[in-house]
Amino acid sequence: MKIIVSADGEDLKANVHETFGRCDYFVIVEVEEDKIILSRALENKCTGRAGGVGISAAQLVAEEGADIVICQKIGPRAIDVLSQLSIDVYLGKGTVEEAVSAYLGGGLKKIDAE
Amino acid sequence: MKIAIVGGKGGTGKSTVSVALAVESAKRRKTMLVDCDVECPNDALLLGADLKTAEKVKQPIPKWDIGLCKKCGACARACKQDAIVFVEGKPPAFVSDRCIGCGACIFSCPASAISETTKDIGVIALGKSYGVDIVSGELYVGELASGEVVADLRRSAEKMECDHQIILIDAPAGIACPVIASIVGVDLVVAVTEPTPSALHDLKRVIHLTKGFDIPCRIIVNKSDLDEGFFNEIARYAKEEGLDIIGKIPYSKDFVESTVSMVPINRVDKRYSVMFADILNEILPDGSQPPK
Fold it and tell me: Do A58 and B97 touch (CB under 8 A)?
C-alpha cells in the first residue's frame, strides 16, 4: 500500500504539513503488512501557483499511485478530486512516521468530500 | 433606448450614476435599470429596494457515462480551465466550479461518453423603487461564468420589456466577457471615469472596446474637481477621440451619505436631481425622444 503524506520536509522525521496543496514535499511511504518498508520524497511543484493548487496536488499524488493521503487540512476541491479518483483522505499530525503509525493503528479520522 | 454605463476601472461611480439617471429618467418615462454587475450587484441597495428572485441562471456542464469512457484523457487535455483531472487508468475527475461550460470536452471525446447537463450559477431578481423597474443578476460565490449570467440577464430583461422607453444597463468594471455582454446591442455607451491615472488608463481600454462594437459613446467625469491637471488630461483625450464629456460631478461626501442611507443621490439634495436631469438631457437631446 502506498501512503502519501503532505510534509514540510523530505523524510519520515518531517512534520505533517498544515495544508495539503501547499506543502513543501509529499513523502511517499510504502507499507507492507503494517510495516514501513520504503519512503521517498517528492517535491510539490504546485505551491508557486496563485490558485488551483489543491487540484494540481491531488493530480500529482494520484499519478504517484497513492492509495491513501494523510494531511492536516485539505480544501474542498482537492478532497473532491481525490474522492473521485478513489483515494481516501485521513487527517493526521506530528511527524510523517507518527502519522503513518497512527493510521496503521486505526487512530486517524477519515474525511469525506461534501 | 438602451444605454450602458461602463467605466473600465472599478469604483469610478458607475452604479451611483446609473441609479441617479434611472431615478431621473423614471420621472419622465417608463424606465428599467438592469444591474449587470453580477459579481456585486448594488443598484437595488442604492435604491433601497427589496428584490425577489425570479429565475435561476444555469450553465451547461459535462456529464460522463463511465461505462463508455475509454480513460484516454482527451477531455482533460481539451479543458483550458483545468476543470478535468485525468490520471492514467482512472476515469476523469471533474471540478464543477472551475467549469465555464465551453463544451470542448464533449467535442473532444472520441467515445461520445460525455453528455451535457447543467448547474445553477446565479439568479435573476426583480424589484421596483422610485418608479424604476430593477432587473438584477447575481453570480453565485465561487462561480466563474459572469458573462453567462449577464447574457441570460439581458435576455430576461428583454422579455420583461413592455412599454419601457429607457433601459439603463449598469455594466461591471473591466472590459471582459460580462462587460461585452452588457454593451452588445445598446444604442449608447456612457463611460464614467475619474481624474486618476488608473481610471484614464482603463477608460481608454473600455472606449477601445466600445468603438470595436461601433457604439456611440459619451463620458461623465465623476469627482471631477479631484485633480484639475488630470481632469484636463481626460478632456484632452476625449477631444482627440471626438467624445463629448456630458457631465462633471464634483467630489462630495453627500455620495457617501446617499450610499449609507440607501437613498439615491437625487433625493439627498435637489441640486443633484438638477445635475442628473441635465446629464439626461445631454443623452436625450430633445428631452423626450431618443436621438437617431
Answer: no
